[in-house]
Amino acid sequence: MKTPLSQDLKNELVVVYHRQPYEEVVENGQTVMREPRSPNGIIPAIKGFFSHVDKAVWVAWKKKAAAGKAPDFERRITVSDSYGNYDVVRLPLEAAKIHQFYHVTSKEALWPVIHTFPWLYSTENIQWSDFREVNRRFAEAACAEADHGAVVWVHDYNLWLVPGFIRKMRPDLKIAFFHHTQFPSPDAFNILPWRDEIIDSLLCCDLVGFHVPRFAQNFCAVVESLRSGVVRHEAPVSLPILPRACALSEPRVTVQLDVDGRSIVIDTCPIGTAPTLIAKAVNSPEGQARTERIRKDMNTETLIVSVSRVDYAKGGRQQLEAFERLLKRRPDLLGRVKLLLVTVAAAEGMEIYRAEQQKIEQLVGRINGHFGTLHWLPIHLSTTPLAFEEVVCAYRAADIAWITPLRDGLNLVAKEFVAAKQGEPGVLVLSEFSGAAMELEDAVLVNPFSRSSLDDTLDEALAMGEAEQRERMGRMLTQVQRYDIGYWTRHVLARFAKLSEAPAQPVAVEPRVAGRNPKQHRKKGPEGPFFCGVRRGSDHALRQHGVGHLDETGHVGTVDVAHRAIGPRAPCCTQAAWMPCMICSSRPSTSSRVQLRRMAFWLISSPRWPHHQRCWPCPVHTARQPLRRPWQPRWSRACWRLRPRTAHRS
Q1: pTM of the full structure
Q2: Which end of the chain, N or C, is less packed with Cβ atoms under 10 Å?
Q3: Within 10 A of 482 (CB to CB), how many other CB atoms are there?
């Protein structure tokens, strides 16, 4: 990395993540930015890179003031905290855009498919155009901040379309993407009607990262199912992933994917935790006192702890039902065992999780009401987030960590529990469908979809001897300490260094409209340039719809400038070959791309074209739409396009 020469230099690492890298709290009527108290999670893991680069910037969103009100925040600010000095570029998004982008599209359509719950998938309230628009804004902000050849690091599924926009705007940049969630198999992912657009965008990356090999293999399988001529380069799975027989096991993993003349690095490395900071928190005098207070307040022989958030993918209801069955079949445990259940309620606006939270609260009330006494309740429920110091001390005080998500990309709670116990006796019961199960070999693995597995593993954890507990926790602590957050940071930085040294790869560039001689453009075929002769009178319409601009000859010039400034407000003729049908989602064949390109310009420049659409029907469905009826096909010898009769009149 080069040393910055002035404050005006562009940034060499641009992080694109929807959340801001700090917490906003109101003190004395003023909003104050506070560093996250927990050293674990996505935000602290990403911020750990800032001390290893010369300059960095974080691109996030911020809710925009209501219409008619003055902006209540600066778009660009400089933050100074324990991670160093860095800039934060905040995109002003309207409340309606945030709701549609995050609360609706991300959580009602994408989240169920990602976690393989297709029966919960819904597009009833989806406005994909808003999702695309937000992704485009993130991409524009990232491109504005990136120096030539810089690395742009995009995070998580709700920014799936950002790499595609960045590649069109800035082909010189190195694009990396990291999935913090799992990635579904082809039979689940291909449910999405926008699957081609998403995969096209991800294939614009230079590096795509995952936690464990299974998710990387799923991604490559999806690419193979939607594209032809895909070449996979595989290698044996290596540390920190351990070879073991469980639900997410893979003996080999893809390390490079060759598609359409480009090579994409497939990286697999799970995020680690911060065991040193956790040990410092629990071993301090304050931490020891807090741990003893928790044990005294819980007042039980065996304390089981479970920490997650309200989400159907976390398996909260299945866990409570298993605990209820335990109390029914083991009356000897009444008054001797307690479940500390921390399920953080979803943020406001997450309607999809409201019903799940109500079910969890009803189950807790039923169990406490049926088994509880005046002096003992089997479940202690908290739906508010606990401070980092409280959480790690609760781990230290607990005898069993019960972590049973139905699906989970990694789950850092399991690693935090191991780090907090510091080799002391304890049992980790962990879902085999979480990514962390591929690292923690001595955890008691459970199948959360099986009632008998939930029951048997809980009985095993309660009956495990202290000596075995120490051995298991000691081996897992060694694993967690060796592959901590520092290891992950060094691994990713090494990958970024290789990307920066690698030569630029060929990019599939959209054909440009240039020149005036129609003969030199008519023979190029579906992938070559073509010609649209348009008079100067149409210049206003072209600019309004973002199609292109007229050059000094009076003909359509290159579309790149308009697309970079306006984005995909309306599809242009150069995009026709790549857009799916808005009815059947099919992609145009090679033979139909010329037809689409010929008609595309006049379809979108006509006042009858619905400008909010981002695609048009394929040739089969086009014939059935009233969209084409006002036009009479007539080919002009001067250009390749379909235009109405009025366009031929002088």
Answers
A1: 0.77
A2: C
A3: 12
The DSSP annotation for 260-289 comes to TTEEEEEEE------HHHHHHHHHSHHHHH
- Model confidence at 508, pLDDT cuts 50, 70, 90, reads low
Residues 6+ apart with CB under 8 A from 273: 40, 412, 415, 416, 419, 480, 484, 485
In DSSP notation, 555-621 reads SB--SHHHHHHH-SSS--GGGGGGPPPTTT-PPPPHHHHHHHHHHHHHHHHSTTS-TT-S----HHH
Can you tell me the distance from the alpha carbon of 10 to that of 12, in angstroms, rounded to the nearest whole number? 7
- If you ran DSSP here, which 8-state letter would residue 36 be given? -
- Phi/psi for 178 (5° steps) reads -125, 130
| Cβ atoms of 437 and 246 closer than 8 Å | yes
Average pLDDT on 335-347 reads 92
List the strands of the sheet with 400-403, edge to edge. 379-382, 337-344, 302-309, 400-403, 427-431, 444-446
Per-residue DSSP letters for 221-239?
Answer: HHHHHH-SS-EEEEEE--T
Residue 475's pLDDT band, with cuts at 50, 70 and 90, is very high
Give yes or no for a contact between 278 and 415, defined as CB atoms under 8 angstroms apart. Answer: no
| CA angle 364–368–374, rounded 5-degree value | 150
Q: Is residue 637 classed exposed, middle or buried when 0-12, 13-18 and 19+ CB atoms within 10 A define those classes?
A: exposed
Q: Contact, 268 vs 219, CB < 8 A? A: no
Q: Which residue has tokens 């259940």?
A: 341
* Pairwise CA distance, residues 485 & 548, whole Å: 47
For residue 256, give both structure tokens: 């490079």
Rounded alpha-carbon distances, angstroms, from residue 13 to 41, 145, 149: 20, 9, 10
